[in-house]
Specification:
Length: 82
Amino acid sequence: MEHVLGYVALASGLIIGMGAIGACIGIGIMGSKYLEAAARQPELMNELQTKMFLLAGLIDAAFLIGVGIAMMFAFANPFVLK
């Protein structure tokens, strides 16, 4: 029974860790592309900034959904029989 809890802890850590890495890389790439686009066409900076913040929220929301799923498995694990 304890080995199942160990696997759940490992999986939760991987979900949170890989999600954080993916979100950070995605926001970093998006920010660099925003700066490139704003440098090429400064008159579109306001429209691009609005879209960039919307996408940053969506990327962060996907990471937080993964954290919620990992916390569900960590604290209310449906795989452990009591």
